[in-house]
Protein: Acetyltransferase
Amino acid sequence: MATEREKMTAGQPYKQFDHELIARRTAARKQLRAVNQLDDNDERNAGYRKLITDTGDDFFVEAGFKFDYGWNIHIGDHFYGNYDMTFLDTCPITIGEHCYFGPNIGLYTPVHPLNALARSADVEMGAPITIGDNAWLGGRVTILPGVTLGNNVVVGAGSVVTKSFGDNVVIAGNPARVIKEIDNGATGNAAVKAKWPWAF
Structure:
């Protein structure tokens, strides 16, 4: 018999007021409140890392980070997150390497039923969020349950991402749509190096 935590992580209907889940949410909230007050960057980020399942070695988040559990958060190496990010990690949130997140980012995996009777019965599910390598999310981006973004994706500030997108695109809007393709091949990289040679 699967636990409520196992059902939750698998995206199956689960009881959100299960004692184990309540205890973890309460503990995470209490610890995050203390960690978010730390002025020292190293101490604050060490505190975040203790609560998150796994991160890369190069991990930096500004103050104001919030999440439900930390159990389902997986972040690759070379990650920067700006102020006031909220990750609702009912289901796995997986972020690749070399990702940059602006302020007030929201990654939301929980799903509530459309049917009012089911909602009032506290039925909850979720769907994972996966973000590839080299993503840049502008400020106030919201990503909804079940979304997968490929590698090298840029998301414009204020966008609401309701569906998945592949590699090498700029997306923006509500709902987000492709507004530009990015040349990450030899030609595009040569142009970047020619424009900013000091950076390489």
In short: The two ends are 54 Å apart (CA to CA). The helical segments are 4-9, 19-35, 41-51, 116-120, 186-195. The chain has one domain: 4-183. The CA atoms of residues 134 and 152 lie 5 Å apart.
